[in-house]
Automatic annotation (TrEMBL):
Record's compositionally biased regions (Basic and acidic residues): 66-80
Name recorded for this polypeptide: DUF433 domain-containing protein
Renumbered residue ranges of the record's region Disordered: 66-92
One Pfam family linked to the record: DUF433
Length: 92
């Protein structure tokens, strides 16, 4: 049976499928946000369908933890977008 683990030195401590670097939030984003069937995600990630459903169950059983992870990821994305190199403005 698949288990979800968290270790500080893998994925920054985010919950993930044991023995992999496949994060719970990543699975959720592929299935729910991305509209991909769980079986397709399992094939894509080379995981069992049970592991995908275990990750989805963990997501739904830990809503506050998942909201916090989403907030943190959104903040990182915003910081990266702000600091990304922009092309020069065209001369007018």
């Amino acid at each position: 049976m698949a288990t979800i683990v968290q270790t500080d030195d893998v994925l920054g401590g985010e919950p993930r499928i044991d023995g992999t670097r496949v994060g719970v939030l990543d699975v959720y984003e592929l299935v729910i946000d991305g509209g991909n069937p769980p079986a397709d995600v399992a094939d894509q990630l080379d995981r069992s369908l049970g592991e995908i459903y275990t990750a989805l169950a963990y997501y739904h059983e830990h809503p506050e933890e998942m909201r916090q992870l989403r907030r943190e990821r959104d903040e990182v994305r915003a910081e990266l977008a702000e600091s990304a190199l922009q092309p020069p403005e065209p001369a007018q």
